[in-house]
């Protein structure tokens, strides 16, 4: 029986990192996208070999949802902070 698993792949300055949310601890890394694909597939196969049929059914029956969000981070600076005379006024206050 074929089952599907979710794979999350993240890229950072050191390469790629991948993990499977349904299988705790099932993760891998690689320098290229092609390498991480091969590595995580192998990691999932090896992980599943260690599980009983009941455990496989339990792990792979979870519903995992993934979304991508983009958040623009804006910085608000108080106009009081931008006024240079404000800082000495603040210090003189105390």
**How would you sum up the global shape?**
flat
Low-pLDDT parts are: none
* The CATH class: Alpha Beta
Q: How many β-strand stretches?
A: 3
Cα-based radius of gyration, to the nearest Å: 24 Å
- Looking at the structure, the CATH topology is Double Stranded RNA Binding Domain
Query: Count of DSSP helices?
Result: 4
**Run of helices and strands:** EEEHHHH
Strand line-up in the sheet with most strands:
1-2-3
Helical proportion? Answer: 25-40%
Strand content: 5-15%
CATH architectural group: 2-Layer Sandwich
Mean pLDDT: 81
Number of spatially distinct domains: 1
Q: What is the CA-CA span between the terminal residues? A: 74 Å
Query: Structural class of the secondary elements?
Result: alpha+beta
Largest sheet: 3 strands, antiparallel
Domain HicB-like antitoxin of toxin-antitoxin system: 7-57
Organism: Thioploca ingrica
Protein name: HicB-like antitoxin of toxin-antitoxin system domain-containing protein
Pfam families: HicB_lk_antitox
Secondary structure layout:
Layout: E1 8-12, E2 15-19, E3 27-30, H1 33-49, H2 53-60, H3 79-82, H4 86-93
Antiparallel strand pairs: 1-2, 2-3
Protein name: HicB-like antitoxin of toxin-antitoxin system domain-containing protein
Domain HicB-like antitoxin of toxin-antitoxin system: 7-57
Short précis:
By secondary structure, the protein is an alpha+beta fold.
Characterization of the model:
It is a single chain. The chain has one domain (8-93): 2-Layer Sandwich (Double Stranded RNA Binding Domain). The chain is an alpha+beta fold. The chain has a three-stranded antiparallel sheet, with helices on one face. It has helices at residues 33-49, 53-60, 79-82, 86-93, and strands at 8-12, 15-19, 27-30. Helices cover 39% and strands 15% of the residues. Residues 7-57 form the HicB-like antitoxin of toxin-antitoxin system domain.
């Amino acid at each position: 029986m074929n089952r599907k698993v979710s794979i999350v792949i993240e890229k950072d300055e050191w390469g790629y990192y991948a993990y499977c949310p349904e299988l705790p601890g099932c993760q891998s890394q690689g320098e290229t996208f092609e390498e991480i694909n091969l590595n995580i597939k192998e990691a999932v196969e090896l992980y599943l070999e260690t599980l009983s049929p009941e455990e496989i059914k339990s792990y792979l029956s979870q519903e995992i949802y993934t979304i991508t969000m983009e958040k623009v981070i804006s910085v608000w600076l108080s106009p009081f902070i931008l006024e240079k005379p404000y800082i000495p006024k603040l210090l003189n206050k105390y």
